[in-house]
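[job 0417] fold request received: Cardiolipin synthase
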Amino acid sequence: MIKRQRTEEGLPVSVNYMLIFEIVVVINSALAFVTVFREKRDIAATWAWMLVLVLLPVVGFIAYAFIGRKLPKGRMFRLQHQVAVQLNERLSQQREQLGTEIMPADKISHSVINMVNMFMETDQAFLARQNRVKIFTDGHDLFHTMMEDIERAHSSIHIEFYTFYNDKIGNEILNLLVKKAAAGVEVRVIYDPWGSMGTWKRFFKPLMDVGGHVEPFLGTRSAVIDFRLNFRDHRKVVTIDGQVGYVGGFNIGDQYLGRKEKFGYWRDTHLRIVGSGVFSLQARFMLDWNATDKDHPFNDRKIDTRYFPLSKVKGNTSLQIVSSGPDSDLQQIKMGYMRLIQTAEKTLWIQTPYLIPDDSVLDSLRIAAMAGIDVRIMIPDKPDHAFVYRATQYYARQLADDGVKIYYYHNGFIHAKTIVVDGRIASVGSANMDYRSFKLNFEINAFIYDEEIARELEGIYEKDMAHSELITPEMFDEQSLYLKFKQTASRLLSPIL
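[job 0417] inference complete; emitting structure tokens
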């Protein structure tokens, strides 16, 4: 297209808009190439970002600035020396014991021993024995028990949550923390500013006024200004006096008590741990705190022994607390999930609100189903994030075609992140079955080697099935073309959702 204009001298000039457009496209493509390929990332995420940057020249680069960049090396975790030494000492003790001591739950299963060793090697996750573990699936029961434990605290209360909302339950817990801090108990809180959207630091002022310490994760007071929207502290950790710990999928907010009409009843899974497993939860919190708050760190020369009291509990559960995040390229929890899938001989039952596996996990699930293993995956029947849910539906449809049994949970919203294998071993934690949990979020899970706990989780799964619907390949085929289009389009962006 050529348009003639006149210069100040009155001479005609030609403006070739098509040529200008082509130049802009070439420059934009070149910038997209340099932007994406200057950082090491997997090929799926690379091409997903290339698609966004090329098709959305301005908007795409703005989105990349906020959620596309990798965590800067300068913000990576600096493991505090003394904490790392204590972990290594406990790890060495566990390595020595593994060679001679029989784990009562696994009957010397080589697959379990290999998994334990893998986590020891990749995450310094020592094997915690003889714990007492209680499973919670209802928010009212969980927070009632948790607040009773906080009320009994006499030394320290450490809390780390992705979401800490300024609502009814949030204020109830805050008021209790204020009371304990005023009584001389050490109280520290880490919250994620993105996950706690709408909760400002001033909400915690009453706690800080009586000596409590509260910080947004990694010291980021503004996720927008700091350009770190993509790296979220999705962990849910509570330790009380170094003796009682909590880990799982619940956050602090009224919606987790079923008080939000959008979601209805909130079905999640959380663990209360008493015993040596709390050591790892405490250590994880301390590492996160020292990476977050430089003004009031835990002493890296001598860790107060009150944080790690000698456990005298005689329970039946052996477990490992495993954490992962963008501070490591190992994707430890994803490795654990894959190991669980590969270990399955008869049954593999999964609950996850988001089902967006990468190729390696997807292939592992397909192989398990094709090998005749009873693979079941339970997901919500409603979205909380539109794009993510459509991508979840896409992968559910693909897996159903490969023989995986897909269940839609109808009794509210299922947010549990659980895996149970052969009624022998299990995982409960914060990590979903998706790219974000594997690579971008800071996550934490308990991998449990106890047949009694595994069977209890199976029983819970079966009860949930009574409120669920098996979605067959034929039912997926009957979905409208428009819905399938949205699923496919969302799937193209799945590596960066």
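[job 0417] notes: Residues 74-82, 104-108 have pLDDT under 50 and may be disordered. Residues 17-37 form the longest helix (21 residues).
[job 0417] exit 0
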